[in-house]
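Researcher: Here's a chain I'd like modeled. Treat it as a single chain, no partners, no ligands.
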Amino acid sequence: MIDTRFAIITGLSGGGKSTALRMLEDSGFLAMDNFPIALFSTFVQMLEYSKTLVPKIALVIDIRSGEIEEFTNLVRFLNEKKLHKKIVYLEAQDEIMLSRFKETRRTHPLTIGKNISLSQAIAKEKTIMDKMKPLADTIIDTSHLTPQLFNEVLRKEFLKEETEKKIILMLISFGFKYGMPIESDMVVDVRFLPNPFFIKELKDTTGKDEKTYEFIINKKETQIFLKKSEELLSFLLPLYEKEGKSYFTLSYGCTGGKHRSVAIVEYMSKFLQKKGFIVNTLHRDTEKI
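Model: Modeled as a single isolated chain. Structure tokens:
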């Protein structure tokens, strides 16, 4: 058996595979994009007979690389050979992927030589690639990840023995009237807290404004809630870490996503950073009318 670690990146076009491959290459992996699945067994044989050890190899295997049946066979081959591997599936929300393609002016692989729109290509690819998701060790939604946080998440997944074991946290504030964030691992409804919306001088502010923040945080019921939340997360997060979870999205929702949920995210972010966690925050709906 060869002593090589395989990092396999798959998922949707526009999900961040190229970014992930660059990060792994910078971390010492031999990196190859659009690797043909049909050549993998031959590639492994070459590594077995080679006198030169290649300790870390990163491969992007996606819709360009072969059929879903071939990918299934690849995973079976890796398991039978007992090769050290980690498969990460990257995805993003449709509107985010549309925006990324427009910003980079890249061509979606399913539109090449075909008379279909970008939106149709994204939908078609998702239908095909969804069959690969169950084969992945980890699924990451990159929709709202900053480049820095995405890099940290990838390092946790592929370089765990070289990084701290602390789980990476994403805190999102949102308004229920606009729908819940689909990437959430946990959703907390804070609509039971006093609402600054009904106070004239606070109505047009957000939970990041000092007066509004203090109004929400200093309420008796908020203080009780925060204490219980701190106890719950202090109990849960180490257990998630123990289970190997490297990334956790916690969403707080209120009616419009401007006051209560924002203040709670701001408070919990400070608390969790003091506990030593890497925390990224997103106030999703503060700019909405």
